[in-house]
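FIELD: query
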Amino acid sequence: MSALDRPGVDIAWCPGCGNFQILAALKKALAELGLSPQQVVVVSGIGQAPKTPQYFRTNMFNGLHGRALPVALGVKAANPELTVIAEGGDGDMYGEGGNHFLHTIRRNPDITHLVHNNMVYGLTKGQASPTSPVGFKTPVQVDGVSSEPVNPLAVALAQHASLVARAFSGDPDRTAEVIKRAILHKGYALVDILQPCVTFNKVNTFKWFRENSYYLDDSYRPTDRAEAFRLATASGKMALGVLFAEQRPTWEQQLAPYRDDPRPLHERSVDTARLAGAVERLRVVG
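FIELD: result
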């Protein structure tokens, strides 16, 4: 048993759900990186995927639907020394949270963004999600989805995300390696994780994902954004692995409190006289 385990916890996912493998992959990645529960904060929203941090030992914040990313930014701003992970499903992150997805990429905070992509809303009984393919039939879209699906990797690359990757829950060991690379990356890192919903998505099964994906080989170098964009938008089989990565200054490094002092805010003393002066100036203006 590792320090990350929570024995006896009641897991509410359906038997066979791809979330189990993602949970295993995340725990494996954190353990192999030597990160303790005290060093990690997992922020999630609403859905089946956002239940993940409830099932292992970590600091966590479970918030509103689609709102995990702004909370993750707040955590990173308060204490840049923490490993901050935002976790949710494709509906939570690309639907309700789509606006935060775009603007978090722009800022390039040092956070890891894990999205469980099962191409359906699993918590609310199987309606189409932003990544559901055209023609996909649900209890709500009885004649099939007519809208083009969101391509999260292409969106992230177009917004100049500093790391963009795709993984598959059916291979938890390889998924753990991708998650480790994302955590070690200094900057915003998207990992879109393909996973089946065994209850509400009978099309995109484990077998379907295996037959419709492939791993980038060791010769691939994720430094060409144009090539990464080509892979992200290619028809046919989906590329798995890190498609693109580059280093550039992170959002928190450019915040005024950290330009000359890297210490987190809780380690600093409060200049009460300066604070009182600021409050007084605001009072007078008000």
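FIELD: remark
Residues 143 and 206 are 25 Å apart (CA to CA).
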